[in-house]
Amino acid sequence: MNKNYMLEKLIDVVVKGDKYTAPDIANEALGEGIDPYEAIVNGLSKGMSILGNKYDNGEAYVPDLLLGTDAMYAGMDVLNPYLKVEDTNQSDTVVLGVIEGDIHDIGKSLVKTMVSISDFNVIDLGADVSPEDFVETAKEYGAKAISISSLMTTTMSGMETVIDILHEKDLRDSVKVIVGGAPVTEKFANKIGADSTQPDASKAASWLASNIK
Ligand code: B1M
């Protein structure tokens, strides 16, 4: 079967928000030899971006987004176990989550997937995470990095609070902070004193793998 045809099916199942068919399509993609990473990034995730654009253009509504999210996660549940873990002997811990006030967790989940396959030990705090929780968890587990996502301009400032608390607790030198998500720019990341921002989940994982020793 044509690879593009299979990727289109993965895109389509998310755009249609069909969580019941998504696992079948994901299994079909695996059966057709599609790389699970590609199935997630160029299939399911692309479907979510298309749905997001439709929402922005008034062609889709919040219930459509919720259905699309369920379909995306149903497909990822099938694909995730087949992702190749790079044998980097990384045993360092990364704490990740979405900043307080924000429940958009799809990008964060992609970051989690990519960081996990880079062989890090990942602690996923989920969405709507307080700055204090990020720092306390990093301290408790001796994490080398905190990875924070934000999808809303209204919640971004919480990322700076995480960095402020790290300074207050004298932990800033031992914990790298990477921030990301659609509204996060390089200028913003520099302004709040983050170590990096990256445009997508895969680049975030690569940055962590190259910058955590
Ligand atoms: Co809403 N939402 N939403 N939403 N939603 C946005 C973000 C919005 C831009 C839509 C819009 O108005 N145009 C807007 C925010 C505006 C702003 O900035 N102020 C918005 C709003 C306003 C809201 C509500 C307030 C709507 C309402 O209730 N009236 C509400 C907020 C609730 C809350 O958080 N408190 C809300 C709710 C929802 C749903 C629940 C329906 C659903 C989320 C479901 C879920 O995540 N479980 C949803 C969705 C799906 C979206 C859009 C359409 C799509 C987001 C998405 O999942 N994209 C979004 C508009 C859009 O993006 N076009 C929108 C796909 C995902 C793969 O991309 O998360 O960007 P993304 O991740 C990317 C990169 O950003 C990057 O990597 C990923 C790609 O690999 N990345 C990182 C992410 N984290 C990273 C971390 C890194 C590095 C890269 O390093 C640490």
Overview of this protein structure:
With 213 residues, the chain is an alpha/beta fold. 54% of the residues lie in helices and 10% in strands. It contains nine helices and five strands; from the N terminus they run ααααβαβαβαβαβα. The protein has helices at 3-15, 22-31, 36-56, 62-79, 106-117, 131-141, 157-168, 186-192, 201-211, and strands at residues 93-98, 121-124, 145-149, 176-180, 196-197. Strands 2-1-3-4-5 form a five-stranded parallel β-sheet, sandwiched between helices. β3, α7 (157-168) and β4 (176-180) form a beta-alpha-beta unit. α3 runs antiparallel to α4 (62-79), α5 (106-117) packs across α9 (201-211) and α6 (131-141) crosses α7 (157-168). The chain is globular. The N and C termini lie far apart (43 Å). The mean pLDDT is 95. Bound molecules: CO-5-methoxybenzimidazolylcobamide.
